[in-house]
Specification:
177 residues, 8 helices, 0% strand, extended
Length: 177
C-alpha cells in the first residue's frame, strides 16, 4: 500500500515539475522572440530621437503643453483624435517615447512632478487603438459590427480623454505638494 502511494505521489510531482519546466521554456521562448526585440526597437527609436536632437525639439514643445493643465487637456485631445489614434497607437511606441521625454522634463524640473499623472493620462490615449479591430475579430464579430464598433470606440476615447485628464488633474493636486 505504501509503495503505491509513493509511486502515485512521485508521478504527480513529476507531472507538476514537467508542467512548470515546459511553462518556463515557453516563457523564455516568448520573451526572446517577441518581447525583447520590441524592447530593442523602442530603445533604438528613443536613442535615435534623443541623439539626433529631435528629442530636444519635441521636449521643448511638450514642456509648453505638459507644463500646465490646459496644455495637458489639449495634448490628451490631440492624441485621441480618432484619425490619429490608430496611427500613433501601434505598439505604443509614440506614447512610450513621449513618456520618456516627459519623464526627462519632470526630472530636469521643467515640469512640476505633480503633473506626472495627468501627463500619463494625456499621452496614453492612442494606446490600444490599433487593437480594436483585432479584438472585434477575436470575438468573431460580424463585419457590420466592426464597421460600427471601431469608430464608436475611437470617438468614445476622444470624448473621454478630457474627462480622464481632468480627473487625473484633480487627483494630482494632492500629489507631491
Amino acid at each position: 500500500m505504501s509503495q503505491n502511494f509513493v509511486l502515485s505521489l512521485s508521478s504527480v510531482i513529476g507531472r507538476v515539475v514537467s508542467t512548470f519546466v515546459q511553462a518556463g521554456r515557453e516563457s523564455v521562448k516568448l520573451m526572446l522572440s517577441t518581447v525583447l526585440p520590441f524592447m530593442v526597437f523602442v530603445s533604438a527609436i528613443v536613442g535615435i530621437i534623443m541623439g539626433s536632437g529631435l528629442g530636444q525639439r519635441i521636449a521643448d514643445g511638450l514642456a509648453a503643453l505638459a507644463g500646465n493643465p490646459w496644455g495637458l487637456l489639449a495634448l490628451g485631445m490631440v492624441s485621441a483624435i480618432p484619425v490619429l489614434s490608430p496611427i500613433l497607437g501601434p505598439g505604443a511606441v509614440i506614447p512610450q517615447t513621449i513618456g520618456v521625454l516627459v519623464g526627462t522634463l519632470i526630472a530636469s524640473g521643467k515640469i512640476p512632478p505633480h503633473l506626472a499623472l495627468p501627463a500619463l493620462f494625456a499621452i496614453h490615449q492612442p494606446v490600444g487603438a490599433d487593437f480594436i479591430p483585432v479584438g472585434l475579430s477575436l470575438t468573431e464579430a460580424e463585419p457590420e459590427t466592426a464597421e460600427v464598433g471601431v469608430p464608436a470606440v475611437l470617438y468614445a476615447k476622444f470624448l473621454v480623454a478630457p474627462i480622464e485628464v481632468g480627473a487625473a488633474l484633480a487627483v494630482s493636486f494632492f500629489i507631491y505638494q
